[in-house]
TrEMBL record:
EC number: 1.2.1.-
Family: Belongs to the aldehyde dehydrogenase family.
Pfam families: Aldedh
UniProt keyword Oxidoreductase present: yes
PROSITE patterns: ALDEHYDE_DEHYDR_GLU
Record protein name field: NAD-dependent succinate-semialdehyde dehydrogenase
Length: 485
């Protein structure tokens, strides 16, 4: 049984709640802990038939859900928010067990998930149209906004609670119904959240969950089924491209939050101690397994040595271990492939002249724990400077010229998040405007908020999540021209 779990009923019911539907086959798959390898649950392994049935349920439920008043939808979202808050400790325990992040981080994520539900419970009441001055006195022209319809959503393993809330709360607020497929590595916290959604009072068919060990067939059905009007996906750019192609035949609306290769720039006028703390936050949160993790740390020559010394000293003090253990800062990587990737990036860098200043090794021979690592003398020829590591590895690149570092920071197909530290106001404005990224953290290593638009430029995605802009992605704009008035 999952440690520190108080509500056994919440966990026990996630494989048979109404939102799950009835599995067609007897196939199952196992969910295990990345920290211990312990079997956590055995869930029904669903496929195309179950997905199609869930889409049909969502399609039948959508007109009734859209017909409710904004206040009625808001009230149900508020109840769901409160249930998430009331069960935050249990949801955090489930999250840590299946994903591995430290319990304090998991609790913070659950709180963040609840904040999205609260935000969109409020925004449900703020879906406004507009009136337009007509060219003649016998016409009236106006714009209304209506829900797009059934939404297919696919969420990642690295933030399995907050991504569920961030994707589906604006859709539900807008009057859409949902079919959600969580990552196969981390389906349990999504299941627990959907069980709470049932208690909150969502009508039958409004929220639907698909468990599956493989996502390809589910994704194809969501993209090809004409009853699904929109796809929202968070994951790799490669899969995002595939889903976009699959949606193209129906010109289906897509929201994509994809890969990143975030630069973290420290200029010579920065507060170095603040920059070190920000780098630790931006790089090592969730063991570096975030799409907005700092992936390339550029430090200007005048402060390079001071920054490296202070960063390495603090990183060496970070504790690695099981997410349930007290004082742990860095949990396990999600699987063996993630472990192999960080090892290959370090080996490639060292072979090309990189120096490991801290960490660089596995912790133990079993499991997927890896020491937080600081790497210096990094050049653009190294793999780590070109690819997203998705692990606790901080490669530091020395730079001289401000214009040059902005060019290098922008020299990537990705454009999700960027960070920089500086105090000169002129520099702050110019660099912020020049960076080709959807989100820029200035003198901070953490910028996510339910009130702010989250999303990227270039091949890091399409659309925005969070904020009032996140609601617009689930609404259709309709122009009404009324004559003879």
């Amino acid at each position: 049984m999952i440690r520190y779990l108080k509500s056994r009923e919440l966990f026990a019911g996630i494989d048979r709640m109404p939102a799950l539907g009835t599995p067609v086959s007897a196939r199952t798959f196992e969910v295990t802990s990345p920290s211990t390898g312990e079997l956590l649950a055995e869930l029904p392994d669903m496929g195309v038939e179950e997905t199609r049935a869930a889409i049909d349920k969502a399609h039948c439920a959508q007109p009734g859900w859209a017909a409710l008043t904004a206040r009625e939808r808001s009230d149900i979202l508020w109840r769901w928010h409160q249930l998430i808050v009331d069960h935050a400790d249990d949801l955090a325990a489930i999250l840590t067990a299946e994903m591995g992040k430290p319990l304090a981080e998991a609790k913070s994520e659950v709180t963040h998930a609840a904040a999205y539900l609260q935000w969109y419970a409020e925004e449900a009441n703020r879906i406004y149209g507009e009136t337009i001055s007509a060219p003649s006195t016998d016409r009236r022209m106006l714009v209304i906004k209506q829900p797009i319809g059934v939404v297919g959503t696919i969420t990642p393993w690295n933030f399995p609670a907050s991504m569920v809330a961030r994707k589906i709360s604006p859709a539900l607020a807008a009057g859409c119904t949902i079919v959600l497929k969580p990552a196969e590595q981390t389906p349990l916290v999504a299941g627990a959240m959907f069980a709470l959604a049932q208690l909150a009072g969502f009508p039958e068919g409004v929220v639907n969950l698909i468990y599956a060990s493989e996502g390809d067939a589910i994704g194809r059905e969501l993209c090809s089924n004409a009853k699904v009007r929109k796809i929202s996906f968070t994951g790799s750019t490669e899969v995002g491209r595939l889903l976009m192609r699959q949606c193209s035949d129906q010109i289906k609306k897509v929201s994509l939050e994809l890969g990143g290769n975030a630069p973290f720039i420290v200029f010579d006028d920065a507060d170095i101690d603040a920059a070190v703390d920000g780098a630790i936050q931006a790089k090592f949160r969730n063991a570096g397994q975030t799409c907005v993790s700092a992936n390339r740390l550029y430090v200007q020559s005048g402060v390079h040595d001071e920054f490296v010394e202070k960063l390495a000293e603090k990183v060496c003090q970070l504790s690695v271990g099981d997410g349930f253990d007290p004082g742990v800062s860095i949990g396990p990587l999600i699987d063996k492939r993630a472990l192999a990737k960080i090892e290959s990036h370090i080996a490639d860098a060292v072979a090309k002249g990189g120096i490991v200043r801290c960490g660089g090794d596995r912790v133990g021979m079993e499991g997927t724990l890896f020491q937080p690592t600081v790497l210096t003398e990094v050049s653009r020829a190294m793999t780590v400077a070109q690819e997203e590591t998705f692990g606790p590895l901080a490669p530091i690149i020395r730079f001289q010229d401000a214009d040059q570092v902005v060019r290098e920071a922008n020299d990537t197909i990705y454009g999700l998040a960027a960070y920089f530290y500086a105090s000169n106001l002129k520099r702050v404005w110019r660099v912020a405007e020049a960076l080709e990224y959807g989100m820029v953290g200035i003198n901070t290593g953490r910028m996510s908020s339910e009130a702010a638009p989250f999303g990227g430029m270039k091949q890091s995605g399409i659309g925005r999540e969070g904020s009032r802009h996140g609601l617009e992605d689930y609404l259709e704009m309709k122009y009404l021209c009324m004559g003879g008035i």
